[in-house]
Amino acid sequence: MPLEVVMQPLTVTFLGPLLAMDLTLPFYGYRVPAGFPSPAQDHLEERISLDQLLDIQAPHTYLVRAHGDSMIGSGIYDGDLLVVDRSVDAVPGDVIIAAINGEPVVKRLGYIDTIPALISDNPLYKPRLILEGDDFEVWGVVRCSLRTHRGHV
């Protein structure tokens, strides 16, 4: 008898809006080898703003924390921070933060036949069709995700 796997869909925790800042960080153009270290100071190319790098359009950008595994095909994992822009219109193919019948989710916006759908990027989850009676609202487009490699914050 096959084992049935039941997993949680990917949901989000809202952390709040991002504020514009004038902080710049050093950017080293040197590709970091996975072997022996190299003195990176010799490769400093410029200073770069995280606002610019992450295309933060304050006050239209906010952070959410992802929970679950339904978007792993997009590289979004449990605990990742998502940078969300609510100033752009979502188009099919975008990863979005949306509310369907009051439940916030992160999914890919798409169509199945001619019916709009919220699509997971994990084959364990079926698409959720957006039907005429559903209360549906897009809360923003995911611009990028940030992952901590030293435990969750």
From TrEMBL:
Domain Peptidase S24/S26A/S26B/S26C as annotated: residue spans: 26-142
UniProt KW keywords: Autocatalytic cleavage, DNA damage, DNA repair, Hydrolase, SOS response
Alphabetical list of Gene3D superfamilies matching this protein: Umud Fragment, subunit A
Transmembrane segment boundaries: none
InterPro entries xrefs: LexA-like, LexA/Signal_pep-like_sf, LexA_repressor, Peptidase_S24_LexA, Peptidase_S24_S26A/B/C
Signal sequence extent: none
Annotated NCBIfam families: PRK10276.1
Family the entry assigns: Belongs to the peptidase S24 family.
Name under which the protein is recorded: Peptidase S24
Organism: Pseudomonas asuensis
